[in-house]
Amino acid sequence: MSDNQNITLRLPRALLKRVKRVAADRDTSVSALMAEALARLTDEDRRYSAARKQAMAALQSPGSLGSGGERSWSREELHDR
């Protein structure tokens, strides 16, 4: 028994015609093209979510810049002309 499930997909006629040409050029089916495109979309979304979560965690706990939390300069020194 297959783990695949059928769905109904409505596409504009012109788009379907182009998709069928691409499938034929690649010697595959429209279903295989759609499965590949949807797998790529969900993978990109998963990787984006993971990267966003990692970036947000990094913002919540910034790393040390080597100063030990102490500044060795004053505002006046920075703006001294």
Fold blueprint:
Blueprint (H helix, E strand, L loop, with lengths): L12 H13 L4 H31 L14 H4 L3
Describe the structure.
This protein is mainly alpha-helical and 81 residues long. The protein has a domain at 10-60. 59% of the residues lie in helices and 0% in strands. The chain has helices spanning 13-25, 30-60, 75-78.
Q: Features of this protein?
A:
81 residues; mainly alpha; 59% helix; elongated
Helix-strand sequence = HHH
| pLDDT averaged residue by residue | 91
Number of strands: 0
For the termini, the CA-CA separation is 79 Å
Strand content: under 5%
Helix content: 55-70%
Provide the gyration radius in Å. Answer: 26 Å
Which regions contain 5 or more consecutive residues with pLDDT less than 50? none
Number of helices: 3
Please state the structural category: mainly alpha
Please state the overall shape, judged from the principal axes of the Cα atoms: elongated
**How would a textbook summarize the main sheet?**
none
Short structural description:
The chain has helices at residues 13-25, 30-60, 75-78. It is mainly alpha-helical and 81 residues long.
